[in-house]
Amino acid sequence: MISSMQTSRWNAILIPVLAVILGLIVGGLLMLLMGYNPIVGYSSVFQGIFGNMYFMGETLRAVTPLIFAGLAVAFAFRTGLFNIGVEGQFIIGQLAAAWVGAFWTLPTGLHAAVAILVAMIASGLYGGFAGWLKARLGVHEVITTIMLNYVALFAANWTIRTYLIGASERSKDILPSASLQAQWLSDLFEGARINWGLLLALIFALVCYWLLMKTTTGYELRAVGFNPHAAEYAGMNVSKNIFLSMLISGALAGIGGATDVLGVNGNMAISAGFTGIGFDGIAVALIGNNNPFGVIFGALLFGGLSFGADNMQRVEGIPTESIQIVISMVIYFVAAASVVNWLLGKFRRRQGVSQK
Amino acid sequence: MPAVVEMLGITKRFNGFTANDNINLIVQKGEIHALLGENGAGKSTLMNTLFGLYQPDEGEIRIRGERVNITDPNMANRLGIGMVHQHFMLVEPFTVTENIILGMEPKLGAKIDIRKAERQVQELSDRYGLRVDPKAKIRDISVGMQQRVEILKTLYRGAEILIFDEPTAVLTPQEIGELMQIMKNLVSEGKTIIFITHKLKEIMAVCDTCTIIRKGQYIGSVAIQDTNVDDLASKMVGRHVTFEVDKTPAQPKGPVLQVQNLVVEGNRGADALRGLSLEVRAGEILGIAGIEGNGQSELIEAITGLRKIKSGSVLLNNKPIENKKTRQIVEAGVGHIPEDRHKHGLVLDYTIGENMVLQTYYQSPFAKRGVLRYNAIYEYARKLIKQFDVRTPSEFTPARALSGGNQQKGIIAREVDRNPDLLIAAQPTRGLDVGAIEFIHKKLVEQRDAGKAVLLISLELDEILNVSDRIAVIYEGQIVGIVQPEETDHDQLGLMMAGGGKGKGGK
Asked: What residue stretches are annotated with the ABC transporter domain (chain B) (predicted)?
């Protein structure tokens, strides 16, 4: 039994890794089918990620918001909630940070911290609203959060156009005191827009893990996620925990939005459509098995491949869509963990028999 | 004529754990053959092997004398083997007929010939005395009828050998009686039944032969006419078992729980409790006898703060607790062993250690300023596991991986160790084997002897009669009588439970 526990812990790591390898193989086969050389393709993706310091820095810049989005999805999921609204909560976070960054005047550093805090609160309440609707009125969170995504997108566009408009369909630039960029860091990565947001993302992954696994709050949240009936019988307040989970999930998404505005562009664009980051967060959480550290892995993979794919298209002319297929296949193999598990089982059984 | 089922020298291993070790099962045509064993003895593994869900590592299976290799359930079906699962596999919004024909629908052109199907179902139902309504929707019919639909499903597929997997676990005493009759009808029509159970009385009542397995080992087969309950029990458990609960007369003191004129709404909107009153005193076990659905669940939920009380009062140690939050009631000194341990008693994905602190995780020493202290939690869990003999590989094992009896022991350890003034035990031994039942009854009596009040709710009359110091009979949301266990019997209780005749002292 102890050994089976270790096996299951191993599987938690092994399955995503195998899924990635299987995904790469299937993607490679598809490239072959389309008449491209997969080795050339993958090596140019690799070049696009690790080729020089600028690429590495930009990859990490692309990974940062994905970590936040993945954490947000994973956190809600651990409480048994499917937060599809990370996209909208991310947008609310962007908007709040853009507003505070442009209009408030505060000392350098503190300004950024306050902007992030306001974004956290705004997005937290936005996510919490969906949680409240579920806890109080029994409205399914998938429905409400999808709808709230649209509300967030169009409300943000309207707010920027009405109150915040700067140059060329974008919000006013934030004041330098609110920036999360660091000159030395940018210089180190040959001018890439990597910023303090990455460090924040790593810190919050740790915070998420600690909160879920080490605190009484996390114990309650997970208990409600696993079995709300038993949690209620044990005297836990299920409604409160649903609200709290969505509040924290939304807040995480909000920090992601804030670091994107404060660290990368310095403003927020009026946008016809979604950023996609919130939806990618679902895939990231899935690859990461809803574990905060797994989410970092998932975001690195997802962000790395997506960013590296641009280089592949630029240099080799292989369409980026082929990398999207690889990512899809990875997600498929993670989701169909039973397939991988089955393969593993076959392999182990053969080993087991030969040992005896 | 060869035996209809011969399983010879069956061995099945899972990752080094031997679930079945050289087991023999020989079933003659037209008999009801009991497969007896404790929880986790390997009964289900053996039957899943026969049904083609598992492949045996060693041994052979012969059906009607012919050696077969049953690779999947479809093949089992073709061989005439049907399984009536303990957990029903029915589509709730579908009708009885639709469920039965699912997968082999009679066609009329491109359409399902539902008329013909209904006629066939009706015929089968009449022939074996199953009394199902072919047009009723599954979600509208009783558990007992749902089970009869499962039986019909196997008959419709031409099963000659029927495996019943612990069929009585979900039934009321009346439904159990009906099922026994149905089983007799089936064998008189030439069917063969393998009856998986650990309820000895049922075996004595209905079976011809009994095969006993213990911890994956084959113990033996006996003809029912040559054996008795005690013999079967000691073969199953491997030691002598007492059925009588060993206890001295109760010495009740002042009231701990006082329920007065309680009115509570049920799930369907009508009042499930209609002015119910009762009292449980310190140092006594009050048993609530009644047919399922007469307000037992609502009573427990009302006392424990899980259901809103419309009117009436609930006093714990003379302090009102009605409509308080569950946590406040728990902290005021109420322990609760819930009826459905998987749904309400445990977080199955948590370790058994984490489950031990499900109500107390936020208190010292398990947490300090909101941070869990896992060392203290697991140290406490180790203590309880030892003290209550919970068989688990370690305190870090997920609760899901434990057998039903050990899961229940875990819950009882948790609830008893909190030392509540009132312990509510709802169906505490449901689905457990005699060894575990003995243990749990002992613990309830120990609580009583320590001067605590125990409220026992059970559908098993034997349990009520053996364990209780007083018995209150519940019928349609009211207590219709209070009797002493030594002055009553099954018949009188049964009558009162059905609403006929009042006992003395009814409130």
From this structure: 5-240, 257-501
What is the number of H-type helices and E-type strands within chain A? 15, 0
The answer as to whether A47 is a domain residue is no
B371/A229 touch (CB, cutoff 8 Å), yes or no? no
Higher-scoring residue by pLDDT: A151, A24: A151
Radius of gyration of chain A (CA): 21
Residues of A in contact with B370 (CB under 8 A): 215-217
Q: Does A215 touch chain B if contact means CB atoms closer than 8 Å?
A: yes
* Confidence category of residue A350, pLDDT binned at 50, 70, 90: low
Q: How far is Cα A169 from Cα A150, in angstroms, rounded to an integer?
A: 19
Q: Do domains B5-237 and B255-497 have the same CATH topology?
A: yes
Stated as kind and residue range, the H or E segment containing A347 is helix A337-355
Domain range list for chain B: 5-237, 255-497
A332 vs B15, residue with greater confidence:
A332
What fold does the segment set B5-237 form as a domain?
A: Rossmann fold (3.40.50)
Residue A331 lies in a domain: no
Domain B255-497 in CATH 2.170.150.20? The answer is no
Domain that holds residue A236: 65-297
Our count of domains for chain A comes to 1
- pLDDT at residue B230, rounded to an integer: 87
Contacts of B325 in chain A (CB under 8 A): 235, 237
What residues in chain B have per-residue pLDDT under 70?
501-507
Mean pLDDT (chain A, rounded): 90
- Per-residue pLDDT, averaged over A150-162, amounts to 95
First to last CA, chain B: 63
Q: Tokens standing for A279?
A: 């939806």
Q: Is A173 on the interface with B (CB under 8 A)?
A: no
Domain assignment present for residue A42? The answer is no
